[in-house]
Amino acid sequence: EAPDWWHKHSVGNMLRIEAPVRQWVWRGVLRQGKVMILSGSGGSSKSYLMLGAAVQYALNNSWGPFEACGDNADRALLLYGEEDKDDVHDRVRALRHSFMLTDDDISQIERRVAVLPLRGTNVELAKLDPVDQQVIVTEQLRRLEARIAEYKVKLVILDPLAMFHSLEENDNVVIASLVRELDAVCMRCNCAMVVVHHFGKGGALTAREVSEQNVRGASALVAHARTVIVMHRLQRDEATSWGVEEASHSRWVMFKIVKNNYGPTGLTHWFEVDETSGAIKPSQTQLTYLNAASIRDAARAHADEQETLTDSEQRKARERADAEVRHWGLVEFF
Residue 270's closest CA among 65, 68, 113? Predict the structure, then answer.
């Protein structure tokens, strides 16, 4: 006769009863109780993106890849380790105009979103025990967990991770322990945590090649997260390949889901940055990569459509298309 605990945890017992309903922060991307990594190079608008996503979460709005769940949104708490109060205030005001928020929207956001600008403050959530060299959590993490539970916060954003620990980030053992501690907080409080992190130096810096391999530090960070997203601001020398003019390259930011335990992987979304205010929003135009052959074909087709040109002029146009692929004004063709 099997013991009681065996029956409780047997697969047969699970097959007989319905699975519990899982709660989402953003459907198909992030579940409550889980950790997500958002990584990108400096200047890729990671912090601005998460501020906008938290505001839209509080309003229960779908926003680009962040799909609302259809029920009342809960509270969101953002901890900014590199920003001071004035920096955050500027960004919040820019979002007000970018999102065209009403007074009712602002009242709802007031109840549901808080930002802690912690620049100049030493916040250490985990450290290495000097005696046994094991990762230990600090009293600051315990207090943070207590506040999350007390105020029923369901979305926590740490930005960036490096400002909240003093561990060796290239050590797989200690980083795995760090992520496990953050995951345990999420599990106990039934909240989701987005950890904002930087890319390492060097490596691929094109939209086609950016992947989870660019995430800085130990691979355990990616391995122990349930969702991993990378961001990349388009560079001038790759703009033409995506069908945009070189002069506007810095406006475009790629958001790519490179790991997802609860939905499709590999989905790419494009955001646009308002270069005056810095606010970022999902683009209505989703870019498609154009290889050299497709660019040449489009240029040739454009030349062929000019029926008034002589055969000699058309031939020269084709030759120019072959020789100057990267300099064609692709917006004219697409």
Answer: 65
Q: Which two tokens stand for residue 217?
A: 């530090």
- pLDDT 10s digits, 276-287: 888 999 999 999
Q: Say whether the peptide bond before residue 160 is cis (omega within 30 degrees of 0).
A: yes
At 306-315, the pLDDT tens digits run 555 566 666 6
Enter the pTM of the model.
Answer: 0.85
- What local confidence, expressed as pLDDT, does residue 309 receive? 53
In this structure, the number of other CB atoms found within 10 A of the CB of residue 175 comes to: 25
Q: Are 137 and 104 in contact (CB under 8 A)?
A: no
Burial class (CB in 10 A: 0-12, 13-18, 19+), 158: buried
Q: Is the pLDDT of residue 250 over 70?
A: yes
Q: Radius of gyration over alpha carbons of the chain, in Å?
A: 24
Q: Where are the beta strands (DSSP E) in the chain?
A: 24-26, 30-31, 35-40, 75-80, 113-117, 126-128, 135-137, 153-159, 192-198, 227-233, 252-260, 268-273, 280-282
Euclidean distance between CA atoms 218 and 221, whole angstroms:
6
Q: CA 138 to CA 82: how far, in whole Å?
A: 20
Nearest Cα residue to 267 out of 66, 65, 68: 65
Measured distance CA(290)–CA(295) in Å, rounded? 6
- 173: pLDDT strictly greater than 80: yes
Rounded Cα distance between 90 and 290, Å, is 37
Q: To which residue do tokens 């539970």 refer?
A: 149
67-83: average pLDDT: 89
Instruction: Please identify which residue in the block is written with the tokens 């945890």.
Output: 9
CA-wise closest residue to 329 among 246, 219, 263:
246
Question: Which residue(s) pair with 304 in the sheet?
Answer: none
Tell me how crowded residue 116 is: count the other CB atoms within 10 A of its CB.
16
